[in-house]
Amino acid sequence: MPPPTTPSAETRPQPPRIIQGGMGVAISGWQLANAVARRGELGVVSGTTLEVVMTRRLQLGDPGGHVRRALAHFPFRDAADRIVEDYFVPGGKGDGKPFKNVRSFTVEPDLRLQELTVAANFVEVFLAKEGHNGPVGINYLRKIEMPIPFAVYGALLAGVDYVIVGAGNPQDIPSLVTHLSRNESAGLSLRVQGLTSRDEDIEVILDPADLHDGDAPNVRRPQVLAIVASADLAIGLANLADPPDGFIVEAPSAGGHNAPPRGPRNTDDLGQPIYDERDHVDLEQLRSIGLPFWLAGSYGTPEGLQRALAEGAAGVQLGTAFAFSSESGLDAALKRAILAQAAEGDVQVHSNWRASPTGFPFRIVQVEGTLSDENVYEDRRRVCDLGVLRMPYKTDNGSIGYRCPAEPTRAYSDIKGGRAANTDGRLCLCNGLLASAGLAQNRAKNGYEEPALVTAGSDFSGVRELMERHPSDEFYTAADVIDYVSGSPAPIG
Ligand SMILES: Cc1cc2nc3c(=O)[nH]c(=O)nc-3n(C[C@H](O)[C@H](O)[C@H](O)COP(=O)(O)O)c2cc1C
């Protein structure tokens, strides 16, 4: 196999000092990434479930015409036309009406779902890159594996500069990106519960030739950054035949999903995982790898950036500070409510080890009216209509089934053979996170709207400082975050 076509060290552009983290679902939308990339820092869009996000935006009437403008540049014209015809609702679907859903992923997604996913990732990156030459990345969760080849290919078609992967071991992602950037067929091995070593390996496969008729479009290999929480994993990845181009080292205070503690499964009174010195990443070992790395988790201050640079990092990845900026996709009412708590110095963010169906600890902001409120959680009738976190499993008759511990308990355990105890306390991240980005599903029959679920990191010190620097603005901007963290003086007046 010829070597991957990543730019050589000499031709590689200077690495960015600030990476705006890819925050799902749709919190790091194209508006935020575009605003950051315009400033020459790395703007990252979340690549999580973009096929749902894009189709919902179209059903809201595509305000501003952005999705259709981007689709007009999508190389597969028939697919773009079909998507607009299937999902665009002129003027919007209207309050209280349900969104039409897209089919959930399987190990063999049909061609329509493949092209929808490719198109949705193309659109998000296209819009993030529009109007400037700054660098744009896309973030995927390794655990959400069935859509990955299609999602990556869509981002490549739009000329994405960085593919960033966390939540699991991303060892097979650099070579997947290499193959797809040559328009070669590429597969990703899937974790299937109940599969034994005697069973055949199950892969989800994308062959770009299935999508285009005729000439393959031109694509360039972006850099691949792996999100890690240990030096051991980084060293293992660096020794691959096709290694990542750098690392983001994420501490447990970061927002979203966190790596579980490396030691025994200890929790505090609130059920939060307890981390200890075993979870501190050995930066000496990381430096010795020789690839660039960025530090994430409580680095969103000028001191944080200086601390990271002093440790030999290329810079920092920031989440929370950007999540509450005006350009983020977080619903404005939720942003206001949490910023009011921050102004009082009273934002409660709990790390919950039960909530996420993935089994990873997940940070949840305590906000009234959202799923952090026990009454709201109890009142929600379980329904699994998006299935982004469904896991494939081997059924008794040897076929592949799909289940998620946040789905209705009877379906999960009685019908699909999962352990009933595994459903305790699980939250539907799919519906909750879409709702927090203003894309809540309405259950038309009973007028119920899916409640939101908000995640954030546990360090709001940068957010508070930014609010104090910009007292007359409802929300500070992404550019304000960059100016503040880069150390520019506070504005006068
Ligand atoms: C609202 C929110 C959502 C996030 N979602 C993701 C995600 O989908 N994938 C991911 O790799 N990291 C995610 N993160 C983590 C950030 O990308 C970043 O690494 C982290 O927030 C850095 O820590 P900080 O919040 O203290 O700056 C999220 C963070 C926040 C605040």
Concise description?
The chain is of the alpha/beta class and 493 residues long. It has 17 helices and 16 strands.
Bound molecules: flavin mononucleotide
- Content-based structural category: alpha/beta
How does the overall form come out from the CA principal axes? Answer: globular
Oligomer: single chain
What does this structure look like?
- The chain is α/β, with parallel strands linked by helices and 493 residues long.
- The chain has one domain: TIM Barrel (Alpha-Beta Barrel).
- The protein is built from 17 helices and 16 strands.
- It has an eight-stranded parallel beta barrel, surrounded by six helices.
- Helix 8 (231-238) links the parallel strand 7 and strand 8 (246-250).
- Helix 5 packs across helix 6 (148-157), helix 6 (148-157) packs across helix 7 and helix 8 (231-238) packs parallel to helix 9.
- The longest helix has 19 residues, at 111-129.
- The radius of gyration is 22 Å and the shape is globular.
- Bound molecules: flavin mononucleotide.
- Flavin mononucleotide (FMN) binds at residues 21-24, 27, 46, 48, 139, 141, 166, 227, 250, 253-256, 296-298, 300, 317-320, 323, 455-457, 459.
